[in-house]
Amino acid sequence: MRPPPGLPDPHAPLPQGEAKVTAVRALFDTIAPRYDLVNRLMTFGLDQRWRRRAVRRLGLPRGSFVVDLGCGTGDLCRALVDAGHRAVGVDLSFGMLDRARTTTPLIQGDALRLPLAPGTVDGAVSGFALRNFVDLGSLFSELARVVRPGGRISLLDVAQPTNPVLRIGHGAYFEHAVPRIGGWLSDAQAYRYLPRSVAYLPPTATMLAALRASGFEAVERRLLSGGITQLLTATRRADD
Fold this sequence. Notes:
Helices cover 43% and strands 21% of the residues. The chain is built from nine helices and seven strands; from the N terminus they run H-H-H-E-H-E-H-E-E-H-E-H-H-H-E-E. The longest helix is centred in the C-terminal third of the chain and has 22 residues, at 164-185.
C-alpha cells in the first residue's frame, strides 16, 4: 500500500531538499489530530518532562522572548509561558498549528527563514524537530542571526543510548512498537517513516561543530532518560 499523496514512502529512500519539505508538511498535517495522544503513550509521559528540562536549561530570566521552532501543538510554548517567558511558535504544518492548545502567537513558516529581525530574541527552543529541517547548518545560522549575543538555545531530539543493552531494547521499541502504536491511533505510514527519520541527524561531533561554526559557544550535549533523548544547549557568542 502506497502512502497518501505527499506523505513519504516508508519503503523509498529518505526524501531530500524540497521533497523533504513537502513530505514533512504532509506528514504532520496527517498525524496532527492525535499527535499529542500518541506522544504521551509512546514516551510514557516523559516528553513533557524533557520539554520542561529544555526550558530550564535555557537559563534565561523571566520575561525573556523565546521562539519555539517546529512548535507543533504548542507543548513547548506552554512550558515557556509557565516558566514566565514570552513565546512565539513557528511551524511548517498548518494542521499542527490548527490543533495547538496555547495562547502563544503562532506563525506558519519555515524555520530556515524566520520572520524575525536580527538579534531580536533572547532564546530559541525546539522539541524533536531537528531531523525534520532540510539543513541543520542553515538552521543553526538562522538561529545565530535572530538570537541576541548572550542569548541561549535549547534543542531536544531523539538519541541512541550508549549502553549496549539499552541500545538494543530502545532500537526494538522505536523501530517496531512505535509504528504499531502510531498505526493503531493515527497513521501507520507516517509512523513507519518517523523512526527512519533519525538517520537525518548527523554524528554528535558534527552537530556540535556546526553550532560553534555558526556563532555559538558553551555548546553542550546532555543525554536524558538513559540516553534515549538528547538536549543540545549553547550561548550566542558576541559578534567579533
